[in-house]
Amino acid sequence: MSNSEFLKLENQLCFSLYASSRAITRMYRPFLEELGLTYPQYLVLLVLWDQEASTVKDLSEKLDLDSGTLTPMLKRMETQGLVKRQRSSEDERIVNIRITDAGLALYDKALCIPQTLLSSSGLSSEEIYSFNEQLKRMITSVNAFK
């Protein structure tokens, strides 16, 4: 590929990732609207469905969201009754997040989402898994430059 070809939009990996991220988020939207969730709130619940409790710092690292973005979202989720926020008694700088019964109740309603979206993708589960593994390796490599 010539140098000038590298500067074409269709050859930009960053644009392909950006466009696919937006398209996938649009696919999730109707399912999440039924649950009363935004996509970032769904990501928080994915973590909490797996481990029931976390700290803001751990959520921030796992989701690659800064605390300035995460904190207001967690406050809204607490108002919705999905999570409970509590400062650590040992260190007030640490805020613990625990999923509530209402947050756990959404788990069963969300179970169909990944399979439904996989079916809509036109790709096999093996192709999705392989692509996801490649993306995770790329993220690790790119993050090494931080």
Automatic annotation (TrEMBL):
Supply the source organism for this entry: Paenibacillus sp. SYP-B3998
Give yes or no: UniProt keyword Zinc.
no
Indicate whether Cytoplasm appears among the record's keywords: yes
Upper taxonomic classification of the species?
Bacteria, Bacillati, Bacillota, Bacilli, Bacillales
Localization, per the record, is: Cytoplasm
Q: Which residues cross the membrane?
A: none
Query: Where does the UniProt annotation place the signal sequence?
Result: none
Name of this chain's protein: HTH-type transcriptional regulator SarZ
Identify a single GO molecular function assigned to this protein: DNA-binding transcription factor activity
- Domain HTH marR-type, residue spans: 10-140
Q: Which UniProt keywords apply?
A: Cytoplasm, DNA-binding, Transcription, Transcription regulation
> Which InterPro entries does the entry link to?
HTH_MarR-typ (IPR000835), Transc_reg_Sar_Rot_HTH (IPR055166), WH-like_DNA-bd_sf (IPR036388), WH_DNA-bd_sf (IPR036390)
Gene Ontology cellular component? cytoplasm
Of which family is this protein a member? Answer: Belongs to the SarZ family.
